[in-house]
Amino acid sequence: MIRCIIIDDEPFARQEIADLLLEHKDMEVVAECGNAIDALQQINQLQPDLVFLDIQMPRITGMELIAMLSPENMPRVVFVTAYDEFAVKAFDNNAFDYLLKPINEVRFAKTLEKVKQDLTPQQLAPVSPSQLVHLPCYCGSKLVVTNTSDVEYAYSDLGGIHVCTANGQCHTQLTLKVLEEKTPLVRCHKQYLIALTAIAEIEILDTGAQLTTHSGATVPISRRYLKSIKQQLGFQ
Hints:
- The chain is α/β, with parallel strands linked by helices and 236 residues long.
- The chain has seven helices and 15 strands.
């Protein structure tokens, strides 16, 4: 059984794909998501084999969602889009699977047959952004989209991954590895990332060092990363 997630901000579009999948008994829809924040959580938790992904969702696009996924959680992706000349050209040039809205039933069946023959996740870097502009976060029961330019630091603990701005902190489904690779944050500690622009001062301690941000937060910095950060700030 091939486990699928359908991601589209339009309920009727999700239902269209779900109805088409009913004709294929070896396909199982394990979740439907109307936005990228919910989708990220469901992909991480359910680890589907296949994702049908709308690329033109508001706030966080389908392409941004792809950039947020860790390689170990990357499913096979079928992109779904209203006609977009640039996107379609990119998909064709890289031999990616895509469907145009409204979805043609014959084309849908052919795409599924191709995917069933090889569920290996594709390298999606050619069509996904190298840097994230927005981060999907949870603040209590609220879903919040945080600009990466507002983030002072991020850290991990038993409660998960936390993103901190001058106004407070939220939880995110993104890993520290993805944040390090896809945002301006740099490693300062095994469990911490820091925005260089947020550093107000560095204090050397007997046990190591710590950073203080412009908002007054303190962040540990291990000796392993101290020299590199000082150099990036212009100190020798």
